[in-house]
């Protein structure tokens, strides 16, 4: 075998195999194959922080097979992702597979297209040890913090807690915003709106602005009513009119951070979902033989850069001028400046080719893939288009010595707004900016207007809003905390660890998050300091650029950290940072103690406070109310002991149980048929809930008949092979599961509803 190509992702490997042909064998490592051991620190601190890497458990057979393939190949192309993590995986592969240095070819490509892949193969390079060392330094730092701090948290706050370097900072951000909200004191203010009309019947709405000396704020009803009285019965005269043409420029193409913010606001996607769907678009979608088979639809989605390749900019120009006209392309090509300190190794996120218009390939994408792809397409095309031109008008209207102002705009030339307008959070809008409205009637200075209505309104200032995923990502990026490629993982981690919960779309700290943050601020202020965390990112960049070393960065951090940890361990007690206990009106029937609320893997439950001497627990509703254990009697008989069966309720909802429970522990799920015959035996398929409360489908004769499926079987037959079609879990997609078929079809939500 002449050439072996090793990638991270199996789907991406399939895509690339189609581009390279028979001279190459393309395989996947499925991510990292080596890591630090889970059972120990894995870092020899006394020996200059030397890392001890081991093969990841379960990857032995894969490593053995890859080693065999590498030995047989003349050249080994390490084509892992084009970032620090990908560079580290390539390095680990070279060592674990014992690949001779003369065989190794490191290749990267920013987009998974035939042209880009072949260009990457033709231009190999050495493994970049600067990037590898930078990734190692980050990994070792996070391991030191996690393994050294976690036992301290177990002893001080609660057993089983995990500490994280950047995650602790993210939790602190959310906790501090919650403290701001609690400390907020609302202040009263008033607005006054007036409805006016000119002689031709044109209507104008204006807002109170101030007086001849400038803007005035109204803080009480008395102040507002004074102005209402002053203008009552007085004429309203136009004192000044300003007409202007305002140029509005498009937003730049997406980076990882701005994609997460905009997709969160506009599509309602969570950060983890955004990155997962973007990964699917990058790695390749099967568009059919007429469009070249499997194609990567977007460029690499982990990037800080706003740079666009000349070839892509030229293709966008051609597309824009042909579809919209010459006037929709600017006189000079737009070039966006990347922020200082950003990693500029890759382009901004853009479509890989202008031939794959979203509408043309919509039927070949899932709903989520289409929505995210269209967002990326529209943002990129708009970023290359001409500015919009707005006709703006602002008029000051005087009455009784006070000024009322009206403003608005209409679109003279839409430019990029034909394709896309960036969303804005309400908190970011300028209250004095002109509002888009029906065109104001023509106004002349000195013109008298008829007064129809005055409307004073009381308001109160509102506390700052809780962070949502978009605003937290924006804050992290602005402060240089973490890397955009890690933001989704950070948010997922602090929620999974129980430090933060989602409340509607907002992020709210739990009691655990608040207590842990207080402990960290008291004893480890450096770890949760915004500036220190941002400086650490700079030092990691310096390692990548060869300006700093792994041992230099780790020594500078650890020497101070070890002293701080020792001091904290000698100073704190468990009572000082104990979590508050919530008692409820429920008595433990086993020992008589008043039960308390605990948080577990599946939510709240009632527990005896005398644990572990008494291990009695009871389920609770989401609102913390006790669940009734026995709901109703039934006509069913227990087949194990002959006693009556009763309907009970528990952690997962209602179920049938023997009335002699717990002496007889026979239980049955309540199942509901879906009107579909089992493909194995013909009995009816029923819907069930698993231990994790996830819905699945099985034959009503299970376990005698072994049929079960996470996806919902339907009565519809595959038009290709005649097999059963299934509704994919969580997607508006029908698929055939017959081996070798691969048929799929997107359906409308109501058609796919279960």
- Going across the biggest sheet, name each strand in turn: 9-10-16-15-12-17
- Secondary-structure-based class equals alpha+beta
List unreliable stretches of 5+ residues. 426-433, 750-754
Our Rg estimate from Cα atoms comes to: 32 Å
Helical coverage, percent range: 25-40%
Task: Please report the total strand number as a whole number.
Answer: 35
Shape summary: globular
**Mean pLDDT rating:** 89
- State which percent range the strand residues make up: 25-35%
The first-to-last residue Cα distance is 50 Å
Number of helices: 18
Describe this structure in words.
Helix 5 (about 130-155) runs parallel beside helix 17, helix 9 (about 270-285) packs across helix 12 and helix 13 (about 470-480) packs across helix 14. A hairpin with a 2-residue loop joins strand 18 (about 500-505) and strand 19 (about 505-510). This protein is α+β, with helices and mostly antiparallel strands and about 750 residues long. Helix content is about 30%, strand content about 25%. The strands form 10 sheets. Strands 9-10-16-15-12-17 form a 6-stranded antiparallel beta barrel. Strands 2-1-7-8 form a 4-stranded parallel β-sheet, sandwiched between helices. It is globular, with a radius of gyration of 32 Å. The longest helix has 28 residues, at about 130-155.
